[in-house]
């Protein structure tokens, strides 16, 4: 690898849809990519061995800065050798900044120029998170990709409120970049056995930056603010760019309008990341508008409540109609759960309160999301994405009747 923390190359395009490769120090990630969410250092309901196996083969997962910072705490993670070693995951990771969690989880919060003061959702303790603290925490976690600290306005924010939030996010973005560069420089300094200062270098002889930093585009549903946020965030200069503040209460057409306006305008040579979205159809429609990276809790969260994502739409395993149904969750799915277990058995487990029900549905849901992304990549690279998109959408709406 070069001295850059990541290398992104586009290998195929069809319309605004694109497929590429994202190289990190822990391997190559093919895009478009879905990233399972590991809130507390674990993707809920599934072991890493299964995530790494050919059945799922997830190349990158998320870690949540807010949750890991509050519990178990950065000092414990540092003492255990960083987040990868602490949790036993050797593939790539992305950590969010903590901004969204402060907005969504903190019962009492106070936003100032310096940062955000809030009460922990765990024990009510008073906490403070700023761009500088977020960068220090993410540097200690050591994920391949870190996110700038931002403020996430609600989906229905007025133009005035969205403008105020946007300006704050831009000021925080600059501070994030400055603090990130300081943290990265510090992480490259070591001392040899004689006590002399040394710098880690890449093979090319230049300092090797360990992490990439992505900037976040905000602006709520207001397209003029979104365009301005994009332009001014790009001026600061990041390794990749994310669209934040969507899927936070706005109507689905509003989200798609923002994506259609903004995604194709984002730098073509950098990864485009849509944060916290969404359903399988959201992913395919967002790819059609130019997005490369996604994360969402839906596969695991819905798995724990008995809802399976399938090629014919959502399936609620609690329904009585599945009591003696010997079909798999999805007859078109080749995951290990669908090859072995029936709807009837999984329903029995769920009604009996067995943990295995959530584990099995979660496994299938992740397989479905990851396999959908594989199919999307193949379709783009073979020039068949428009056909795939049409057939995928039609089948999703057909149901199991």
Descriptive overview:
The chain is of the alpha/beta class. It folds into two domains: 7-296, Queuine tRNA-ribosyltransferase-like (TIM Barrel, Alpha-Beta Barrel); 304-396, no CATH class. It has 15 helices and 18 strands. The strands form five sheets. Strands 4-5-6-10-13-14-15-16 form an eight-stranded parallel β-barrel, surrounded by five helices. It has a three-stranded antiparallel sheet with strand order 1-2-3. It has a three-stranded antiparallel sheet with strand order 7-8-9. Strand 13 (212-217), helix 8 and strand 14 (240-243) form a beta-alpha-beta unit. Helix 6 crosses helix 7 (159-187), helix 13 packs across helix 14 (355-381) and helix 14 runs antiparallel to helix 15.
* CATH architecture assignment name of the largest domain: Alpha-Beta Barrel
For the record, what CATH class of the largest domain applies?
Alpha Beta
Mean pLDDT: 92
Q: Strand order, main sheet: write it out.
A: 4-5-6-10-13-14-15-16
What is the assigned CATH homologous superfamily of the largest domain? Queuine tRNA-ribosyltransferase-like
Silhouette: globular
Count of individual helical segments: 15
Q: State Rg.
A: 21 Å
CATH topology (fold) name of the largest domain: TIM Barrel
What class, by secondary structure content?
alpha/beta
In terms of per-residue confidence, which ranges show pLDDT below 50 for 5 or more consecutive residues? 189-199, 201-208
**Strands, total number:** 18
Termini separation comes to: 51 Å
Oligomer: single chain
Proportion of residues in β-strands: 15-25%
The major β-sheet equals: 8 strands, parallel, barrel
Helical percentage: 40-55%
Number of structurally distinct domains: 2
């Amino acid at each position: 690898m070069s001295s850059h923390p990541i290398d992104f190359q586009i290998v195929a395009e069809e319309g605004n849809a694109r497929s590429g490769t994202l190289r990190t120090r822990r391997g190559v990630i093919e895009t478009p990519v879905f990233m399972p969410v590991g809130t507390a250092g674990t993707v809920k309901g599934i072991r890493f061995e299964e995530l790494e196996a050919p059945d799922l083969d997830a190349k990158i997962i998320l870690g949540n800065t807010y949750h890991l910072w509050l519990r178990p705490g950065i000092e414990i993670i540092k003492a255990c050798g960083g987040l990868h070693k602490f949790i036993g995951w050797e593939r790539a990771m992305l950590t969010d900044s903590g901004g969204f969690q402060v907005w969504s989880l903190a019962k009492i919060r106070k936003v100032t120029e310096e940062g955000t003061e809030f009460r922990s959702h765990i024990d009510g303790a008073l906490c403070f998170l700023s761009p500088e603290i977020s960068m220090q925490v993410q540097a200690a976690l050591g994920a391949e990709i870190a996110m700038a600290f931002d403020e996430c306005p609600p989906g229905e924010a007025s133009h005035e409120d969205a403008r105020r939030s946007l300006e704050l996010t831009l000021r925080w973005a600059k501070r994030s970049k400055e603090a990130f560069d300081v943290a990265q420089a510090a992480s490259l300094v070591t001392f040899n056995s004689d006590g002399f200062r040394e710098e880690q270098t890449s093979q090319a002889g230049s300092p090797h930056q360990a992490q990439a930093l992505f900037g976040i585009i905000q602006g709520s549903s207001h397209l003029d603010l979104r365009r301005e946020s994009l332009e001014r965030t790009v001026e600061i200069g990041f390794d990749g760019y994310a669209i934040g503040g969507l899927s936070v209460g706005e109507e689905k057409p509003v989200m798609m309008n923002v994506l259609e306006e903004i995604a194709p305008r984002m730098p073509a040579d950098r990864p485009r990341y849509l944060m916290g979205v969404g359903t399988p159809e959201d992913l395919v429609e967002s790819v059609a508008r130019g997005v490369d990276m996604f994360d969402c809790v839906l596969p695991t969260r819905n798995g724990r409540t008995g809802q399976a994502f399938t090629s014919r739409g959502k399936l609620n395993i609690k329904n009585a109609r599945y009591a003696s149904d010997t079909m798999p969750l999805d007859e078109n799915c080749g995951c290990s759960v669908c090859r072995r277990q029936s709807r009837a058995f999984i329903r029995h487990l769920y009604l009996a309160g067995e943990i295995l029900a959530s584990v099995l549905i979660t496994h299938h849901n992740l397989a479905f999301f990851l396999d959908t992304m594989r199919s999307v990549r193949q379709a783009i690279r073979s020039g068949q994405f428009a056909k795939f998109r049409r057939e995928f959408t039609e089948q999703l709406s057909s149901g199991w009747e």
